[in-house]
Amino acid sequence: MRLLKAELKRILKSSRSMGLIAIGICLSVLLAVVPVLFVSADIRDAHGNVRELNGISAIRYWREIYKPFDGEVTPGKLKSALTTYQDCVKKYGNPNSESFPPDVYIEKIAPIYSLLRLATITYDDFVNGNLIPRGLEAINVDEFDSFYQECDTRLQNVLTAERETAATIKKATELYGKVERPFTLHAGYTRDAFDYLTINTLFFVLFGVVFSAPLFSENYETGADHILRCTKFGRKKLARTKILAHMLMNILMYLIGITLHLIISDLAFGTSTLKTSVQALYDTISLPNMNLFQLQITVSLAGMLSLIAGNAFTYFVSAKQERVAGTLSLSLLIALAPTFIFMGLGNNWLSAILPTGGVGMNNSLLNQLVDFRFLHLGSHSFWTPQVTLLFTIIWIPVFLFLAIRSYSKHQVA
Q1: Residue 291 is part of which domain span?
Q2: What would the pLDDT profile of 103-151 be if each residue is shown by its tens digit?
Q3: C-alpha distances in angstroms, 296 versus 117, 246, 288?
Q4: Rounded to whole angstroms, how far apart are CA atoms 360 and 374?
Q5: What is the DSSP string of 309-367?
Q6: Which pTM value belongs to this model?
Q7: DSSP 105
Q8: 9 and 158, same domain (yes or no)
């Protein structure tokens, strides 16, 4: 315990460590604020002029006009929204055209946009093995009586169109069968906010690598390891203590940063919006049985696991490498590898099973969850998010063991 306290005190006195922690926390706040600033709304004032709202004021405006449609996504609400839309189209033409009256769009179309989007992405025609979206004008309001059956049909059509295997069809159908219905919609929270949350987790993983790279390599370079290795606890116990101290600081930095991020984001958009089903924000055939709050927690915890796994690999490399620059280069390369591999190969085993397979851009766990991604091995199919989380957890003890063992057996030059 005294050794751990001494190591923690040494870390806290380091200007480099404090600088990284400060940058990480400031970046978390910035990344939480940016998607809030993206929100805008056009309103008509008392003089009939259209003016633009941005940020918090726009969010409050949208929450107010969405309120009558909050709650369960029922056939009745969908019918009402589509009837309003079709009546406006008959009277004024295409809402996206310049001739469409702005005040009618603001008062009639904008409040029901989220419901209309669900209809747009759900109803399509399956022709010659291809899915052809149907316009809102082509949907009969009475079709909404079987809206959730249509979601099931669309899932099967997508599986067929993508020529998925029988194992994938079975797995996807089982997962989708667990999704609670009717969906819940409290419109307001944006996809941008989730995208910036995943970017934040990626930055923390990279900060963790930079923070951890000098752990053993630095003492190799300076020669301090010659002295430390000769002390009573200078091998395994020292390695375990240094790893534990650095891991605690990384986890603490992550928890503070992500907690601040979520508090700012959730208070800005409104905590009620977190009751929204994943399917209502993304795709009606998204497979996770979660609301947005549960999705936030899942992405955040997965990010922390990726941070720990990425650090564990960095400790192992640091125990092997004689130079900090070499440790840093290799560790950053592996941390970013899933993103680059996914960009080149798409959904694949390699990007999923690497220690940081759950963080990145298009390869992130968030996108794995809301998109339709499966991995195949022989006649078996596996849902990519489950594979990613499993291997992230597996790598943690593996690389921690290898790091301690490698440092203990390191030969002083």
Answers
A1: 2-36+190-409
A2: 888 888 888 999 999 999 999 887 777 788 888 988 999 999 999 999 9
A3: 22, 26, 12
A4: 18
A5: HHHHHHHHHHHH-S-HHHHHHHHHHHHHHHHHHHHHH-S-HHHHHSTTTT-SSTTSHHH
A6: 0.91
A7: I
A8: no
